[in-house]
Amino acid sequence: MVFPVRRMRRARIKAIQPILRQTRITHEDLVVPLFVDHNLKKASPIASMPGQFRYPISEMGAIAEEIRDSGLRAVLLFGIPKHKDERATGAYEENGVVQEAIRSVKRAVPEMVVITDVCACEYTDHGHCGIIGKTRRGIDLLNDPSLELMDRIAVSHAEAGADIVAPSCMLDGMVSSLRSALDGAGSSETLIMSYSTKFASAFYGPFREAADSGYSFGDRTSYQINPANRREAFLESELDAGEGADILMVKPAGFYLDVLAEIATLGLPVAAYQVSGEYAMIKAAAERGWIREKEAILESLICIKRAGADIIISYFARDVAGWLVEEQ
Ligand code: PBG
Fold it and tell me: Which of 13, 30, 86, 145 could be bridged to 131 by S-S, CB 3.0 to 4.6 A?
């Protein structure tokens, strides 16, 4: 028997492993998604996402302080408005839910990086991500009229103090339209983190309850990408890079690591969004004792980072912040 010269297990002893570790999650990697509800007076649990809450605006300052104290630096805000209508007018009101939440967070923790989801699905009565109307294919999301709506939403977020706006509706020309609207409104310092490669995914299921953004007809396959299409997924991010996006995004994260790795070659920072369904699956299996929660969460995040993510948006961020030092 010829003995191997290369013994890989030599490097796997406990004392050596930490110094050879190739990927680490840090506090700076993580973004905390938060749901803010204009109709609430106190926090309300989200049944489809155990451990997650909708918060009233009045609690946002305290939440921001707690997040800062845990070592995290960035939040992503979603709003549930007082009223919904066909044209999502509640999304760009000066005193709308997200606009107020931005001000509360910034008042409490000025250095917190505030990112806002720019989309209409929480604000439309039909639940689609922009303006709908008749097309040759039937009722569908209208691209260019929806762009104008996104411009108004993003400008109102920037004016309320958002550092980064994150358009999530997968419209064509979305980033260049937003960039010129922001620049025209004097917000040239505001970054655009585009949900540049966003798939039409079943894993957004639990979010629909969290953000009250379920749709009343159809689906989102006329604007989000077919999960089967890798080259199309790359092209979508490449186009947004060309239109001036500051940060690209792949969403969902865990099932799309091949796509994430390819998009990271474009050279721009890349965010990965570990979505509500990825969160709920780990939670549900852990609740039944089928997997160990902490290990599964850390593994899921390490793998996303290993594939090339610079930023990870995760509902686990606040849990993980407390574990980081001891676990790695
Ligand atoms: C759109 C938006 C969605 C999510 C983030 N932004 C829903 C959708 O596109 O249908 C999903 C996030 C998640 O599932 O965690 N505003």
Answer: 145
Can you give the CATH number for the domain in which 71 is found? 3.20.20.70
H or E segment to which residue 138 belongs:
strand 138-141
User: How many structural domains comprise the chain?
Assistant: 1
CA distance 197 to 3: 48
Query: Is 251 noted as a catalytic residue in this protein?
Result: yes
pLDDT tens column, 64-86: 999 999 999 999 999 999 999 99
How many angstroms separate the CA atoms of 258 and 229, rounded? 11
Q: For residue 173, what are the contacts with CB-CB under 8 A and spacing of at least 6?
A: 143, 144, 147, 243
- Residue 2 inside a domain? The answer is no
Does 7 reside within a domain? Answer: no
Ligand 1 centroid, distance to 42 Cα (angstroms): 23
Choice among 106, 251, 283, 305 that is catalytic: 251
Query: Is 198 annotated in the active site?
Result: yes
pLDDT per position as a tens digit, 56-69 = 999 999 999 999 99
In a domain, 309, yes or no: yes
Residue with tokens 């290369």: 6
In a domain, 114, yes or no: yes
